[in-house]
Amino acid sequence: MDQKLLAEIFGSIAAIMAVSIYIPQMLKTMKTKRAYDLSMMTIIFMFTCNFFWFLNGVLEGSYSRTLAAIAIMVIAVIMFILKKKYGYEDLSQKKGN
Questions:
Q1: Distances from the Cα of 3 to the Cαs of 8, 10, 48, 53, 54, in angstroms?
Q2: Which among 77, 43, 80, 73 has a CA at the least distance from the CA of 57?
Q3: Long-range contacts, 11-18 (Cβ 8 Å, 24+)
Q4: What pLDDT score does 95 carry?
Q5: How far apart are CA 81 and CA 26, in angstroms?
Q6: Number of C-beta neighbours around residue 87 at 10 A
Q7: Secondary structure letter of residue 4 according to DSSP
Q8: For residue 96, what pLDDT is reported?
Q9: pLDDT score at 71
Q10: What pLDDT shows up at residue 87?
Q11: Where are the domains of the chain?
C-alpha cells in the first residue's frame, strides 16, 4: 500500500476521533443551555490551533487534516456562540435568593 494513502487513512481515523471529542460537549451545552463552566480560553485555543492545522493540511495536501480542522473550527464557533449566550450563571435562580 502506498505510504501517502496509508497516511491519509490514519489521518481520516484521527480526524473522525478528533471531531468526535468535541461533539458531546457541544450537544450537552445545547441541551442544558448552560455554558458557564466552559472555558472561553479553551474555545479560543481550540479554534486557533485548528486554524493552523487547516493551513498545514492545505499546504501538505491532506484532505483529512483540512476537513477535520474545518469541522472543529465550526464546532469552536458554535461553542463560542453558546458560551456568549448561556455562559453566565443566573444567580437569581440559586437557592437562598
A1: 9, 11, 29, 21, 21
A2: 73
A3: 11/62, 11/64, 11/65, 11/68, 12/64, 14/64, 14/68, 15/64, 15/65, 15/67, 15/68, 15/71, 16/68, 18/68, 18/72
A4: 57
A5: 11
A6: 18
A7: H
A8: 55
A9: 96
A10: 84
A11: 3-88
Measure Cα distances from 20 to 16, 44, 90, 95 in Å: 6, 18, 30, 36
Q: What is the pLDDT of residue 37?
A: 87
Query: Running DSSP on this structure, what letter comes out for residue 89?
Result: -
Per-residue pLDDT at 32:
93
**Helix ranges restricted to H, 1-97:** 3-32, 40-60, 63-86
- Mean pLDDT per segment of 10 residues, for the chain of length 97 residues? 88 92 93 91 96 95 92 96 84 56
Domain 3-88 CATH assignment equals 1.20.1280.290: yes
Question: Distance between CA 67 and CA 57 in Å, rounded?
Answer: 8
The model's pTM: 0.82
